[in-house]
Amino acid sequence: MGDLLRRMLEECPGRYVSGQEVGRRMGMSRAAVWKQVQGLRRRGFGIEGARGAGYRLLGRPDLIEEKELVSLLSHPAFWKAFRFLPVTDSTNSRAVELAGKGALHGTLVCADSQTAGRGRLGRRWESPPGINLYLSLLLRPSIDPACAPQLTLVTAVALAMSVEEVTGLRAMLKWPNDLYLGDRKAAGILAEMSADFDTLRHVVIGVGLNVNAEQSSFPEGLSAKATSLRIAGGRSFSRVAVLARFLDSFAVNYGKFLAGGFGPLLPEWSRRDTLKGKKVVLRHGDKEMAGRCMGVDGSGMLLFRRDKGSRSERFASGEILEFER
Ligand code: BTN
User: Fold this and answer.
1) pTM of the shown model
2) Nearest to residue 264, comparing CAs of 145, 157, 188?
C-alpha cells in the first residue's frame, strides 16, 4: 500500500496530490492514508501535507533498490542474485551463510547498515545507516586457492576506477586492501575464502565504502584518518549510482583477471600505488620490519626491501603499520 502512495507522489514530485484522490485510488479512508504517509516519513521520505491541497513529495531518502540498480548496470548478466537488507550484523557473514546454502556465483549482499561490520585483523567497520555502502560479493571462481588473495587487489582496482569515474577524484591504493582519497582512507576490502585442499569452494569479498559520511559522523579515533566521497568531493553522491559503477567495473576487471591473472591489472594498480618508493613499516606474522616498498608484482605480492637490504623480498600477506606521507 505504501508503495502505491509512494508511486503516486513520485509521479509528480513537488506537486500536490489530493488526499481524496489518494484515498480513492488506494481504497482507503483519509485516516488510513495518513498512516501510510507517516510510514513513508519514517523511511526518510519528505512529505508535506496541506489542508485542502493534499500531499506532496519534497525529498526521498538515498535508497538502494534492486530495480533502480539493475536499470543502471551496463553488465547486469554478471549478477545472478541480489539481497538487500535494511540491517544485518555483517554482509560478509550473510554471504558466507548464503554460500553454505548453495547461493550462486555472482550474488550480491548489500545492507543499509551493519551492527557488527568487520574489518581486517579483527577490527570493527563503522556502518551507520543511510549514508555509505556495505556490500559483499559471493564468487565461485575455478582458480587455485593460492591465487584467491589476488581478488582483493582486483576488487581494489575496480573500486578505484569506479570511484574516479563517479567523483572525478584521484583514488590511491594501499596494499593490499585500502582505498585512499588524499591522505585519508575512504574504503576497505575484506576477502574471506573457503577451500578444500586445492579446491576453492567460494570467496566472499566485502567492501565498505564511505559515500556520504560527514567528518562528524566518524567516531573520535577515526575522524583524522577517514574520509568519504562526499568530504573529498564536496558534494553528495547517489549510493545506488556509485554501487552500479562499482559492480560494472568489478565485472569487467574480474573478467580480465580470469583471462590473464593479476598481471594485466598491475599497471592500473601501480599507477595508484600509494606506497611505491616509500619508507614503510611492515608487520608480517609477529615480525615488524622497517624498509621501503618497491611496489607490487604481477601476482599481487608486495615488494619490500628492508633497511640495509640489497634486494626486494615478496610478501603475500602482511600489514603496513606506518608509511611515509
Ligand atoms: C578493512 O579495511 O579492514 C576492511 C573493511 C571491510 C568492511 C566491509 S563492509 C561490508 C563487508 N561486511 C563486513 O563485515 N565487512 C565488509
Assistant:
1) 0.91
2) 157
